[in-house]
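Researcher: I need the complex structure. Ligand is aspartic acid. Inputs:
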Amino acid sequence: MRHLLSIEDLTRDDIERILDRAAAFEEVSHRDIKKVPALRGRTVLNLFYEASTRTRSSFELAAKRLSADVVNFAASGSSVEKGESLKDTVLTLTAHSPDAIVIRTPYAGAAALVASWTTAAIVNAGDGKHEHPTQALLDVHTLRQKLGSLEGRNIWIVGDVAHSRVARSNILAFRKMGADVTVCGPPTLIPRGIEALGCDVRYDLDDLREADVVYALRMQHERMDQHFVPSLREYAANYQINGRRLGPRQVLMHPGPVNRGVELSGEVVDSPQAVITMQVKSGVVVRMGVLYEVLAGARDERSAPQPTEPQLA
Ligand code: ASP
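Model: Output:
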């Protein structure tokens, strides 16, 4: 695989291959010296145009555990603030000859666009509300560890589906792995036609008990230009996952950052059913699996695209 741009591009075999490799990397995370030489001499550029805690730190750690050299670039404090465009920034940083670029931007489709400007392997770390493929992969990895297989499992994704790239990637990934997926939220936060991705739609939590896994989403205020719910208090009253709604055998997931008291009550975040910390841990090994896949896994399949010449303003 040359790039990882979306879950849509992956087959179930691709997902299983990446996650089997991630599982093999688990052992490295338990060693005293948490490093293998798999990507020694390779350079990974982390290009983040949007806030990130978990994704950025775990990509950095993943690259370092594979012995790659890492360059971190955040838009704030860079020439982006002086008006440099995404294309010029990418072309400028490409002068450092990165082998892989991990990119997060607020623009849907930006990762695919960047892939056409450089010979580096591109890993999408979130492009607007389009996709967040490594989040979906780490969630599948977490569920494989927790439940064995996803085949026939019932997964409910609850909350702001409309603005969530995680929802889109996860519906696709969970379906590819054989799970039944239901999305649930207020009608204003469920995009019309979402069933085309292979999921059911509910507008209330009345049947939440049928879920094996409850996956809560954050309200994506940064992508909203109007009020989609009357108030957060009313939203919480109808859709918050709390001790009253969550059954004792249900697994609770959330991609982070959690807004305690909104989509989740504090008690369920801290309950033994929550695997939120496990998801963060999975992030490192899964991103090791992804970097290995695009940089070493399919080296022979590579064909070199023609990079465009830098045109700096
Ligand atoms: N961290 C995830 C994302 O970047 C989820 C979220 O921000 O709510 O999409």
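Model: Summary of the prediction. The CA atoms of residues 220 and 261 lie 15 Å apart.
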